């Protein structure tokens, strides 16, 4: 009699699971790599214990941590005949690629920025029993790569009337920076923060073109400045001219002409005893990248 009861119990369990197949699971890669400024796809597929499911379904993507992380994407499908309608898409850059009804939650992230480098977690919720929810626990780590890009290159002066050139570039991995140009003392300093690097060339003493080159495993970039020191007519003070390669000859000509005209005009016919002599403003600074 006891054996008969066990057989009936087993048959009852089998009949109750007649609409079920696999158990819950989520499948994601541990890492995905994307390129800065482009798009990337985060794959996520899952299984659930139902052979057929026609109730409401919700797909969710979070960042930073599972269960409580910030939601960056969410869509809802009310029935198997309805597409998953987007309810949340942070900055409108997250797009659903997969079909949740076909157990695919994959998304695309457009126009990648540095802040997109994070850990992502996909989650599916089936309307009904509270246990019909499942989320990846380990998540996907999104890594970014980027070819070097020079974001700033300048020449500036110090209080002791010395000059230095400064070049800042970014990339991933962080690029190596080198200065080339006229002979100069080997006095440089480098600072880095994450994917950004700055290299300073101190005590500029020779006129000419100074080029900053940034290199990493994904490419290279160059930026340059022209540094010139000259004396305005009638003045014993050196003037500094820093130019970009584009249009250098035109800018030099305009600068020299403006300084010459200014010096020929001389002082005002009614000078004030409190007035101080002023030097012609002939300083130009910019960069090429």
From TrEMBL:
Coiled-coil segments: none
Keywords: Membrane, Signal, Transmembrane, Transmembrane helix
Signal sequence coordinates: 1-21
Pfam families: V-set
Entry-linked SMART domains: IG, IGc2
InterPro entries according to UniProt: Ig-like_dom, Ig-like_dom_sf, Ig-like_fold, Ig_sub, Ig_sub2, Ig_V-set, SIG15
Record domain Ig-like: where: 148-217
GO biological process: regulation of actin cytoskeleton organization; regulation of bone resorption; regulation of osteoclast development
Annotated Gene Ontology cellular component terms: plasma membrane
Transmembrane in keyword set: yes
Tagged with keyword Transmembrane helix: yes
Transmembrane segments: 237-262
Name of the protein this chain belongs to: SIG15 protein
Organism: Piprites chloris (Wing-barred manakin)
């Amino acid at each position: 009699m006891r054996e008969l009861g066990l057989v009936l119990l087993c048959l009852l369990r089998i009949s109750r699971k007649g609409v079920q197949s696999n158990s819950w699971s989520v499948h994601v890669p541990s890492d995905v790599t994307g390129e800065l400024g482009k798009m990337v796809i985060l794959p996520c597929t899952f299984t659930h214990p139902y052979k057929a499911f026609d109730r409401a379904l919700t797909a969710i993507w979070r960042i930073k941590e599972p269960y409580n992380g910030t939601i960056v994407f969410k869509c809802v499908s009310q029935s198997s005949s309805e597409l998953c309608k987007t309810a949340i898409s942070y900055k409108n850059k997250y797009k659903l690629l997969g079909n949740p009804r076909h157990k695919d939650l994959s998304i695309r992230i457009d126009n990648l920025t540095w802040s997109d480098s994070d850990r992502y977690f996909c989650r599916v919720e089936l309307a009904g029993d509270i246990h019909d929810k499942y989320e990846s626990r380990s998540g996907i780590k999104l890594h970014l790569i980027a070819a070097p890009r020079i974001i700033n290159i300048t020449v500036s002066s110090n209080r002791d009337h010395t000059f230095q050139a400064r070049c800042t570039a970014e990339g991933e991995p962080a690029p190596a920076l080198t200065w080339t140009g006229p002979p100069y003392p080997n006095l440089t300093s480098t600072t880095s923060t994450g994917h950004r690097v700055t290299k300073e060339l101190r005590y500029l003493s020779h006129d000419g073109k100074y080029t900053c080159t940034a290199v990493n495993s994904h490419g290279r970039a160059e930026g340059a400045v022209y540094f010139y020191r000259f004396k305005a007519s009638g003045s014993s003070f050196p003037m500094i001219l820093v130019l970009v390669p584009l249009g250098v000859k035109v800018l030099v000509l305009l600068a020299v002409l403006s300084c010459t005209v200014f010096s020929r005009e001389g002082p005002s016919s009614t000078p004030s005893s409190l007035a101080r002599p002023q030097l012609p403003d002939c300083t130009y600074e910019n960069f090429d990248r």
